[in-house]
Amino acid sequence: MQTPEPDARPWTGLAALGIVYLVWGSTYLAIRYAVREGSGFPAFWMAGSRVLLGGLILLVIAALLRKPLRLARRDWTITVVTAILLWNGGNGLVTWAEQRVSSGYAALVIGTTPLWGALVESILHRRRPGGRLVVSLLIGFAGLVVLTWPMLQQGERSDWMATLALLGAPISWSIGSAYQKRHQIRQPILVSSAYQQLIGGMIFLLLALLTKEPAPDPTPEAWWAWGYLVVFGSVIAFTAYVTALRALPLPIVMTYAYVNPVIAVFLGWLILHEPITPSTLAGTALILAGVAALFHDRFRR
Questions:
Q1: What is the pLDDT of residues 50-85, one digit of tens each?
Q2: Distance of CA 131 to the CA centre of its chain
Q3: Residue pair 17/177 in contact by the 8 Å Cβ criterion
């Protein structure tokens, strides 16, 4: 029997979390470009093809590096459960909802992920979240509200079905992350990431067929967004996310949902020359204060 792959070291986990911060901060916009009205990319076809190709790329890389590819029965169970909760429940609901809502609105609702993650962890450990943890999370969420408020005031609205999907996504993602944190498989991170994406991708394509989505006919802009999501969102960032989960406490990893909108706003300033407003600076300061307080509390302990 193979022994489990050693957990990543904390500094490796922090570096991986930094990649998640940077890359996933840009994927809200990429998903919106890929599936918005007129893009020619139905949500489940886009998500399924993106994730399936990402999984295949990771599996080829793992094979070239001579990583063990076989999964034990126990590991298959964990992989299937986490694939459904993370990809189909978490990412899939966001992708479907972003056909109907703005990326800013999606980022705000998904920003509740650290709160749900803390709740799930407290239930699993059968203890209340610490006061410092709760305060840190609330400060971070307050900063997220301040940061995204100008976007919401510009007339961006959502229907109730999209809002329910966005509320369900962080719950599913938090449960899947906590489950994966507690039930780590024996295979290397590349292999586990590959199989999770292959399973999630096949389920997405099955959903596309069951819901009778039209055949994809993407615009060039949608293809570019899709390619970015494959390489950076699936292959690089998701592998980094799994690495961070193996090395860091769950509440620390979940801070990506607070930091991602900050990264998205500042990328807009850097690349698209979008203005930085006082609310941008105030929201960013609150988010960073909440994240810093959380890091200080966790690593002090």
A1: 999 999 999 999 999 999 888 888 899 999 999 999
A2: 26
A3: no
CB 78 within 8 A of CB 143: no
Mean pLDDT, all residues of the chain: 83
The single-letter DSSP state of residue 70 is -
**Measured on CA atoms in the order 240, 246, 247, 248, is the torsion positive or negative?**
positive
Residue 93 half-sphere exposure toward CB, CA atoms < 13 A: 22
Task: State residue 155 phi and psi, 5-degree precision.
Answer: 90, 10
Give every CB contact of residue 96 below 8 A, 6+ residues apart in sequence.
Answer: 43, 44, 162, 165
Instruction: Give the gyration radius of the chain's Cα atoms.
Output: 19
Look up the pTM and report it: 0.81
Task: Compute the distance between CA of residue 124 and CA of residue 213 in angstroms, rounded to an integer.
Answer: 38
Here the tokens at position 147 are 């940061």
Taken in order 95, 100, 103, 106, is the CA torsion positive or negative? negative
Alpha helices in 83-130 (DSSP H): 92-97, 103-110, 113-125
